[in-house]
Amino acid sequence: MASTDKQVMVIGMDESEQSTYALEWTLDHFFTPYASNHPFNLVIVHSKPTPASVIGLAGLGSAEVLPFVETDLKKIAARVIGKAKEICTSKSVNNVKVEVVEGDARNVLCEAVEKHHASVLVVGSHGYGSIKRAVLGSVSDYCAHHANCTVTIVKTPKHKLKHT
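-> structure tokens emitted (164 positions)
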């Protein structure tokens, strides 16, 4: 089977433990057992928030802060992508496409599914309660309802979390 015949799997990554676990779980279940003949082409997507969305309604003086926020967001994105590549390499999964896309994670991931014609989207679950989820919004819940593919939500077992 040529690599162009393989289905595409998109994994959403952020800097959380849950996201890291979701990547490791996915590699262990869908890639490592198949050695170099795994059934999917893998695309890892990190959604980088806009500096304005991070600052929010800071008001006066926020313009001076924007360059520093942008620098921090770029550093976080580089760290997330570096860690994802390191995990893939450690599990002998080397043909991975990585993308950093600016925007809200919910929209970025659903758009990545469309762009790559993905058949599977994998996201981690932060395990927010109903109030926190209502205020912050749940990326996994949004994607489960709006992505045009199968969505796998990987929940990290409590015993694997460093901060419970």
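Helices lie at 17-31, 51-55, 62-90, 105-116, 130-136, 139-146.
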